Each structure stands twice: as C-alpha cells, then as structure tokens.
Amino acid sequence: MNESDETGERTFGALPPARGRGFARTWWGQAWIRALEDDALDSEQLRRGRGYARAGAVGAVSVRPGRVTAVVRDRDGTRRRCDVLVRELDGAGWDRLLDVVAGEAGHIAALLDRDLPPRLAEDADAAGVALLPGIGELEPECDCGEWHHCPHTAALCYQLARLLDRDPLLLLLVRGRDERALLEEAQLRSAARAERAARAAGPGAAGARTPEGVPAEEAYALGAILPPLPEAPPAVDVPGGPVSLRGGTPPAPGVDVAALEFLAASTAAAARRLLAEALAPGHAGTPVPAPLAHGQDAVRLAASRPGPDVAARLAGGCGRTPREMAAAVRAWETGGPAALAVLEEEWEPCPETSARARELIAGAWAECREDGGEDGGEGEPPRLRVTGNRWTVAGAGVQLRLGRDGRWWPYRRERGRWWPAGPAGRDPAAALAGLRQARPSITG
Questions:
Q1: Which of these, 387, 294, 399, lies nearest to 349 by C-alpha position?
Q2: Which of 88, 136, 159, 354 would you label with 308, given CA atoms 20 to 30 Å apart?
Q3: In the predicted model, is pLDDT for residue 438 greater than 70?
Q4: Are the CB atoms for 420 and 433 separated by under 8 Å?
C-alpha cells in the first residue's frame, strides 16, 4: 500500500521477502545500493542487513524530505526504529536542477510519465547537482546503539532500493521536493524561457524568413469567418486501461490474447507520453525523433516487463535469445537507442580518438598514484586490449565501449558475456575508475 499526505510524506507497506532475487533491477535501484555500499564502513553489517531485508524483516517504509524511516525486526523479535538521513538539495541545487529539467522537453515528459531517466541524472551531474547520495551523505540513526550503518539501517537502505525500482521519483522526495512541485516549476520555467527567446528574436530578427501559412494568432482572430479551431486536448494523468479481451467467446486460432492486451496497454502509455510532449512548451521546435527499427521497438516493449510468454515472443521475433534480449533491455534502460547501438555495433574509431583516450587514462592513473589512491598506490597502469571501439581491461572483467557520439559506456563481464553497467560519460578515465571501484551488480 502506498499512502501520501499533504506534507509530501509517502508510506509504503512492508514488502514480501526477497528470496532468490536481487534487491534491485533498475538503474536507480542498483545505483542506490552502490551508494550505500560505497558509504558503509563495515561489510559485515551490510551482510546482516541484506539478510534482514531478504527475510522480510523491514516493516512499512516512510519516505519524506531528508529522511527515510522504518521499523526492522531483529532475529529475536525485537523491533528497532531506524532512520537514514539524506542531505536535501539547497536552493541553488534545485535551481540548477530545474534548469536541467526545463531545458529539454523529454525530461518534462518523463516526469509526467512518472519516470526518472538515467540521462537526467547525467545531465544534472554535469550541472553540478548529484541526485544520488555521495560519500558521507547517508547518515544512519538506530536505537540499537551500534555505530554507523548497523544491520537495521542497512536493511532499510536495501528495501528502499526495491522501492526505487517501482518509483524512482522517490529520490526527488528524499532530496527535499515532491515531484509535482518540481514539475510545475520546471514547466513554468520552460514556458518563460520560450517566451523570452521569442521576444528576443522579434519579427525582424536577422536571418528570419516569413513562414508559409497563416500564423495561429491570426487564425484565431478571424474566427468569425473561419471554422473555429479545436481546443488543445487536456493532459492525461494516467494512460487508459485497455478493453479486456478475455470474454466468453474463445479467440480465433493463432490470436494471442495476452500479447494483444499487452500491446494495447503499451500503446495507451505511448499515446499519453506523446500527448505530454506535444503539450510541453517548445514542442514545435523540438526535432522529430527517428522512428525505431523493428528490433529497437521489440527491445522497447520488452523493457516494460511483459509476462514471460510475451517476452519470449518479443525476443524470438527480433532474432534474439532470452539472454541477448536481457542484455538489450539493460542497455535500453541505461540510454535508449544509443546504448542499444553500442551493445550491438563494433566499429573502428579514428587513431586520434584512441590516442586521446589513452592519454586521459594514463594521466588519471598518474594522478591517482600521486594522491595515494586505492588503485594507484602501487603497480602498473591497467593493461588495455583494444578491439575497434571496445577497450577491455585485461584480467579485470570490465570494459569501455565508445559510442559514435563520443561518449564512453561502461560494461562488466558476468556469466560469460558483457553487460551494460551504467550510463555513458565523456571522460573514459572517469568511466573506467567507476567500473574498477564499483562492485558487480549485473544480474539476469
């Protein structure tokens, strides 16, 4: 159960035990776990906390600005009230984040769809706003009396990762602001930005040419002699539910009812997203995205987690095995069509690009050695095996892949194949350092 009040606090009922599965499947859930494990000082406390969370010992979870709260049961039945405090973004931080959201219609559309794309985190980070907590930003409190992260606060953090899988916008709330307030302010800022740009251009702007047709304001002014234009459709809060196809009449041979219902629901969600983008300020000047190829669209549909039968049909229909489709879905979740292309394409960058990447990695390694960093305290720089746009660290099970747009995508080897391990970045040295320091988190 999910309840909220006028203060923005949201409460989630206790989740069932997590036996036989990881605590996070999405990029945001996994990133939260990495933040916890990077911040913790005692791995044994984390191990016990995972056990508590896996056994279903975490009660209802309350999420509010700057704080997450729950009651966790000890093995002897003792109930422990625990909190995890997260630093809220200050006014300047929210101001920069609003500029990031308002600067791209896709970010506003994603928030309207209750989604928080990893690309938004990347853009926010470039603007100096970290949505995910860094070292020292997770402050645990528990009445058990143990120092730093005890098993109870660790269990609460693992449980929150599962909740972020379901609703990544909770991260905005714990950082200090309800997503509705953020969205309203971003839409106002986006509209004001478009209006200022229009005034600055003016009717006689240099290079401007008279567009064909009749300006919309003139058409409205001539309503007495022209057919009235329809009002813009209202925004839709949630996509409509598809008509149930499971009536008394059996389906015709070869008709997969579950697949038709899934496609109908997916189409309704896509229609709502397209409407939100069309109503967003500045939509008229937004380039039309290229249509998805057959294989790309199959991955997009599979990323919405259909049932096993539909997922198998999607994989088979685009010539992928179930494991290949799982890797493709993971790539899609980290960066859409661009990330999927990096997963499946191998190409040869120009020599200048390869040389520059080597310089950046070597320079970062030298700086790390001078500072006495964990990886740079002793030994030689990582040995890199380069094949086309794929840079593999010998013996480490990590790899960087260069996209055609110049961004570097992290990969990790798990169970005999390479899996996408996060969003892309412009700096190969930073991407490689993140891979070498992070724990493996790929499943599937």
A1: 387
A2: 159
A3: no
A4: no
User: Which residues is 420 bridged to in the sheet?
Assistant: 411
Cα(56)–Cα(59) distance, rounded to whole angstroms?
8
Residue 168: CB partners within 8 Å, gap ≥ 6? 26, 28, 115, 116
What 3 state SS string does the chain have?
A: CEEECCCCCEEECCCCCCCCCCCCCCHHHHHHHHHHHHHCCCHHHHHHHHHHHHCCCECCEEEECCEEEEEEECCCCCEEEEEEEECCCCHHHHHHHHHHHHCCHHHHHHHHCCCCCHHHHHHHHHCCCCCCCCCCCEEEEECCCCCCCCHHHHHHHHHHHHHHHHCCCHHHHHCCCCHHHHHHHHHHHHHHHHHHHHHHHCCCCCCCCCCCCCCHHHHHHCCCCCCCCCCCCCCCCCCCCCCCCCCCCCCCCCCCHHHHHHHHHHHHHHHHHHHHHHHCCCHHHCCCCCCCCHHHHHHHHHCCCCCHHHHHHHHHHCCCCHHHHHHHHHHHHHHHHHHHHHHHCCCCCCHHHHHHHHHHHHHHHHHHHHHCCCCCCCCCCCCEEEECCEEEECCCCEEEEECCCCCEEEEEEECCEEEECCCCECCHHHHHHHHHHCCCCCCC
CA angle 226, 232, 238 (to 5 degrees): 160
Burial of 194 (0-12, 13-18, 19+ CB in 10 A): middle
- In DSSP terms, 413 is beta-bridged to 418
Give the pLDDT of residue 441. Answer: 44
User: Is the confidence at residue 5, as pLDDT, over 60?
Assistant: no
CA torsion, ordered 197, 203, 209, 215, to nearest 10 deg: 90
In whole angstroms, what is the distance from residue 427 CA to residue 104 CA?
Answer: 23
377: Cα separation from own chain's centroid: 34
Nearest to 65 by CA among 9, 13, 121, 115: 9
Among 405, 401, 393, which Cα is nearest to 422's? Answer: 401
In this structure, the number of other CB atoms found within 10 A of the CB of residue 206 comes to 6
pTM score of the predicted model: 0.46
Per-residue model confidence (pLDDT) at position 212: 56
